[in-house]
């Protein structure tokens, strides 16, 4: 029995859907299914009842859920014992958060001159794994994660940026609404390459009772903003930090009229590891680096599990 198998089992057990569990673990559905099958063979019992419409835990599967959670929490606690000293901390994030991270680190070191804080660049899935393993103590992410082994502190909420070709019918007026945007195809990388943006847009459209249509998927070696020049009938959406560095020639940048395309920026820590003063102050300092046009959270220390 491998901890990886328990991790995948727990994801399926909580999602009750192999496809969503695969997205959550950032692996293919076939990889999830293979490891679950191996675990079931080792257990000698089926862990899930599967049909074309639903997935349910068996009696043995339901009993294994709490054991799997406990084993994964023990793994995190054991790794944390050897991965940091009291005054050392590693903050994981991507390059778009570099300015926020450095500003927060400077502020924390003014208060804690003994602190050693590293900012390490990692992709989203790597950040979460690093926090869970104890390699990093804080991850700065867009969006959120729902795992009992993690605490999520929402720092601020930012509007996503709607990008249109200058000749698009919605480019010349006020900020467009979701209802107006829904009349045109959306241009994005395929869902597996940009899960977060797809989820935000799909959720906003569904809540508003709107139907989303897509243009051709953006290739991995292309950018959505550049592809709009080839498909001016479409629209796209990017992070605010990406918009700042995107060439503006031939493009118009807007926000959704009713601010329904928003994304939280959050700090993630392991719930099983005691919080240090340095860690707490770093998260508060990160919250203070929110952009001027972002919606800051009044209680950055509050946590969402």
TrEMBL record:
<protein>
    <submittedName>
        <fullName>DNA-binding transcriptional regulator, LysR family</fullName>
    </submittedName>
</protein>
<dbReference type="InterPro" id="IPR036388">
    <property type="entry name" value="WH-like_DNA-bd_sf"/>
</dbReference>
<dbReference type="GO" id="GO:0032993">
    <property type="term" value="C:protein-DNA complex"/>
</dbReference>
<dbReference type="GO" id="GO:0003677">
    <property type="term" value="F:DNA binding"/>
</dbReference>
<dbReference type="InterPro" id="IPR005119">
    <property type="entry name" value="LysR_subst-bd"/>
</dbReference>
<comment type="similarity">
    <text>Belongs to the LysR transcriptional regulatory family.</text>
</comment>
<dbReference type="InterPro" id="IPR000847">
    <property type="entry name" value="LysR_HTH_N"/>
</dbReference>
<keyword id="KW-0805">Transcription regulation</keyword>
<keyword id="KW-0804">Transcription</keyword>
<keyword id="KW-0238">DNA-binding</keyword>
<dbReference type="GO" id="GO:0003700">
    <property type="term" value="F:DNA-binding transcription factor activity"/>
</dbReference>
<dbReference type="InterPro" id="IPR036390">
    <property type="entry name" value="WH_DNA-bd_sf"/>
</dbReference>
<keyword id="KW-0010">Activator</keyword>
<dbReference type="Pfam" id="PF03466">
    <property type="entry name" value="LysR_substrate"/>
</dbReference>
<dbReference type="Pfam" id="PF00126">
    <property type="entry name" value="HTH_1"/>
</dbReference>
<feature type="domain" description="HTH lysR-type">
    <location>
        <begin position="1"/>
        <end position="58"/>
    </location>
</feature>
């Amino acid at each position: 029995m491998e901890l990886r198998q328990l991790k995948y089992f727990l994801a399926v057990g909580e999602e009750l859907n192999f496809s969503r569990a695969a997205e959550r673990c950032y692996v293919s559905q076939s990889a999830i299914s293979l490891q679950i099958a191996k675990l079931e063979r080792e257990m000698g019992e089926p862990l899930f009842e599967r049909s074309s419409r639903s997935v349910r835990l068996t009696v043995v599967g339901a009993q294994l859920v709490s054991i799997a959670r406990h084993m994964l929490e023990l793994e995190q606690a054991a790794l944390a014992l050897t991965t940091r000293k009291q005054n050392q901390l590693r903050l994981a994030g991507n390059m778009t958060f570099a300015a926020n991270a450095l500003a927060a680190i400077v502020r924390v070191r003014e208060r804690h001159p003994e602190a050693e804080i590293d900012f390490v660049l990692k992709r989203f899935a790597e950040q979460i794994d690093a926090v869970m393993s104890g390699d990093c103590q804080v991850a700065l992410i867009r969006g959120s994660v729902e795992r009992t082994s993690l605490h999520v502190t929402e720092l601020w909420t930012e509007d996503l940026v709607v990008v249109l070709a200058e000749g698009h019918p919605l480019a010349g007026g006020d900020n467009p609404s979701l209802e107006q945007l829904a009349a045109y195809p959306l241009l994005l990388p395929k869902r597996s390459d940009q899960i977060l943006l797809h989820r935000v847009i799909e959720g906003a459209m569904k809540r508003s009772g709107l139907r989303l249509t897509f243009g051709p998927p953006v290739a991995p070696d292309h950018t959505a903003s550049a592809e709009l020049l080839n498909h001016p009938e479409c629209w796209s959406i990017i992070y605010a930090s990406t918009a700042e560095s995107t060439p503006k020639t031939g493009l118009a940048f807007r926000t959704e009229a009713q601010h329904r395309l928003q994304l939280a920026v959050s700090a993630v820590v392991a719930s099983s590891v005691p919080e240090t003063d340095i860690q707490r102050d770093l998260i508060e300092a990160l919250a203070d680096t929110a952009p001027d046009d972002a919606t800051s959270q009044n209680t950055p220390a509050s946590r969402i599990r």
